Amino acid sequence: SATAKPKKTWALSNFDIGRQLGRGKFGNVYLAREKESQFVVALKVLFKRQIGETKVEHQVRREIEIQSHLRHPHILRLYAYFHDEARIYLVLEYAPQGTLFSALQAQPMKRFDDRQSATYIKALCSALLYLHERDIIHRDIKPENLLLGHKGVLKIADFGWSVHEPNSMRLTLCGTVDYLPPEMVLNKPHTKNVDLWSLGVLCFELLVGHAPFFSKTYEETYQKILKVDYKTPEHVSKAAAHLISKLLVLNPMHRMPLDQIMLHPWIVAHTQ
Ligand SMILES: Clc1ccc(CN2CCN(c3c(Br)cnc4[nH]c(-c5ccc(CN6CCOCC6)cc5)nc34)CC2)cc1
User: Fold this and answer.
1) Burial profile 191-211: b = 16 or more Cβ within 10 angstroms, e = fewer
2) CA of 85 to the centre of ligand 1 (A)
3) In this structure, which of 19, 46, 123, 130 has its CB flanked by the most CB atoms within 10 Å?
4) pLDDT digit of tens for each residue in the chain (272 aa)?
5) Are the C-beta atoms of 21 and 42 separated by less than 8 Å?
6) 74 Cβ inside 6 Å of ligand 1
7) How many CB atoms lie within 10 A of CB 168?
8) Could you tell me if the CB of 77 is within 6 A of ligand 1?
9) Mutate to test the pocket of ligand 1, among 59, 147, 164 (most ligand atoms within 8 A of CB)
């Protein structure tokens, strides 16, 4: 706009702090309310000392730079950020219905039906199309990093570093390796097609209740990923199994592109 709004500088004193929403290696997230507007947000508080020591500082800057410019219904907003001598504060959109990971656990059969799964996959597809158009890749899409907003609308909410959240952490200590594509397991340069693989892993997990390559040890999971060794249970519909088989493909160039996923019969049949 011609008269761009002057950048307001925020401070902790602008907010009432509520309950803790989650704990992390580098900080914590709290429910908070901006005093003047009464607007409810999620306030992520990162400790400079922990970040400085681990050289994650450049990553935090990059994430803030990227996240603050994104505007999409399925990407969690970063409204503002500020810092004091010890901490960096990120003012984020609050997602009232928590993580997709806990929603999956709360399901009676620990899995979603075709309609709910296809709705989440379609939302994720449109967010990834938006990100890929801006050459932003590897949003680390796994249930722990996906939040549910008002009316259960899916929001990508990752800041790319691991968290120690007892209630939403999987059994492995430093985040799950279940979502890594073969090219990343082999430490090859990765392209935006890594997100297509992760989408396939997520689609499987939503419909089945566990990840396709889940194993007792990292080693075993890596081996299964590199051999694309997974079995789709009988209860999964043929159409869904077909889509998964077009995403869990070893060669990144041969994975189904996002615009084709949006038009896949399983997505079309089970979403508005
Ligand atoms: Cl530094 C760091 C610390 C912790 C984390 C992990 N989470 C990242 C996402 N966080 C949330 C963000 Br950002 C934005 N909105 C949120 N909304 C929630 C939330 C909302 C509601 C609940 C409660 N459940 C809702 C579903 O029914 C059962 C109860 C649990 C979590 N968490 C977040 C919470 C913390 C990541 C990084």
Assistant:
1) ebbbbbbbbbbbbbbbbbeeb
2) 25
3) 46
4) 456 666 789 999 999 999 999 998 889 999 999 999 999 999 999 999 888 866 677 778 877 888 888 999 999 999 999 999 999 999 999 999 999 999 999 999 999 999 999 999 999 999 999 988 888 886 588 998 899 999 999 999 875 532 332 223 343 335 678 999 998 888 887 788 989 999 999 999 999 999 999 999 999 999 999 999 999 999 999 999 999 999 999 999 999 999 999 999 999 999 99
5) yes
6) no
7) 17
8) no
9) 147
Report which protein residue has its CA nearest ligand 1's atom 8.
22
H helices within the chain, ranges in order? 48-53, 57-69, 100-106, 114-133, 182-185, 194-208, 218-226, 238-247, 258-262, 265-270
Distances (CA, A) of 101 to 113, 159, 168: 15, 16, 7
What ipTM was predicted for this assembly? Answer: 0.98
